[in-house]
Amino acid sequence: MKQNTLVLAGGGHTHALLLKALQKQPLPCQPVLLSSTRYTPYSGMLPGVIAGVYQPEEAHIDLKVLAENSGSEFIEDEITTLAADNNELTTAGGQTLKYDALSINTGSTQQRVIEGPDCISIKPVERFLPWLSETLQERLKQFERQSKTFNLVMVGGGAAGVEVAMALKERFRYSTALTIHIMTSNGVVPGHSRAVRQLVNNELAQKGIQVHTDFQVASVSDHCIHSLSGRQLPYDQVILATPACPAPWTAHSGLSTDRTGFIRVNPFLQSCSHDNVFACGDIAAFTETALARCGVYAVRQAPVLHQNLKAWLNGQALQPYRPQQQFLSLLSCANGRAIASRGAFRAKGSLIWLWKNWIDKRFMAQFPTPLYDSVGSDLLPYRKPLPAEKDQSLLNKKP
C-alpha cells in the first residue's frame, strides 16, 4: 500500500514543535519539510541578537537536523506556486512536490508601503542580520568620521518595530551619529492597554528614540519620507516594520483566502476550501475569531495540528483549536529590562527580563541549534574565528 505523503511547507514555530512531537508520536505518513532556509529564527530572541545579548546561533533552529531526527525529509527551497486542486506545489529550484496532505506554516512578510533608496525590511531575518553588521555598521562609522547625524527611520510602531528600534539603540549605544525615529499612525504598540503604551513611550523617551505619531507614510523622495498629511522627515535609512502580509503565491493557489491573501481556516486549522490542507501561524486567517499574528498562538496550535493531521490521515474526527483569551506579552527593552503584560497586569524591570530570558531559553532548549555561527558571523564583534574544518557555507552570504 502506498504511504501518504505529508508536506510541511515552512519552518515556523508550529512546524518546529510538530516535528519535535513526531519524534515520540510519528504520523502514518512520509513527512517532508520544505523550508526556504535551514536555520529558522525564534522571534522572541531576535531583539536580543540585534542588541548583542545573544549569539545569533542561540536564536536559530536547525531545521535540517530537527527534520532528520523526526524521520522527515528536509528540502531547502521555497514555494513559488501551489495548485491546491491538483495537490501539488512547485519550488524556486524547479521541484514539483505531490502531496496527500499539506500543512502550511510559512509565516508572513511585511507590507512594502514604500520603495526607495536605503529601504530594508526586518523580514526576512537572513537578509536583515548580515545587512545590520556589514552595511549599517560601516555607514555609521562614515557619518561619525564626518560628524554628521544619521537619521534611521523605523516605519511601524508595533511590538516588532519598537523592540528592534530599542535593540538598535543598545547595539550602537556608543555611536555619536545615530538618531532613531519611529513613524506610526496609531501610536506605539496599539494592541496593548493605555498603561502598557505609556510604559513603552517612557522607555523610548529615556533612550532618546523619537516617536512621530499620526504619521502615515505615503512616499519617499530624495531621501525624504512624506506623510499623507504633508509632513516630511529626512532620512539616511528606512527600516520597515509594517503590518504582516502573505507571500504572493497564496492569491493563485486555489485556496480560500481573506481579502488580504491569508489562508482562511476553520477551527480545526483546516482550509475552508480544501480539507487536506491545513494552515497555522501567521499565514492562517481564522473565519470565526480574528487573532493577532503572534508567536504565542502559533506555539499553542502545534498540539492541535499534530492531533488533527493524525486524525485526518486515519479518517477520524478532528478537534478544534481554542485560542486562549489572554496571554503573557513580554517586550524586550534591550538593556537588561523588559515589559510584561497580561490583561490588567503590567510590570517592567530587570526581573521581568530575567523571566523572559528563562522562558526563551527554555523554549529553544527543545531544538537543535547551529553548532557554530552560520547566520551572520560578524554580527557580534567578539565572535571568535571558526575552525577551518567547519562548514562556513552561509558565513559569506550577502543580503
TrEMBL record:
InterPro entries: FAD/NAD-bd_sf (IPR036188), FAD/NAD-binding_dom (IPR023753), NADH-Q_oxidoreductase (IPR051169), Pyridine_nucleo_diS_OxRdtase_N (IPR017584). The keyword Zinc-finger does not apply. The keyword Oxidoreductase applies. Transmembrane segments: none annotated. Keywords: FAD, Flavoprotein, Oxidoreductase. Its cofactor is FAD. Residues 28-288 form the FAD/NAD(P)-binding domain. Gene3D superfamilies: 3.50.50.100. This is FAD-dependent oxidoreductase. It comes from Endozoicomonas euniceicola.
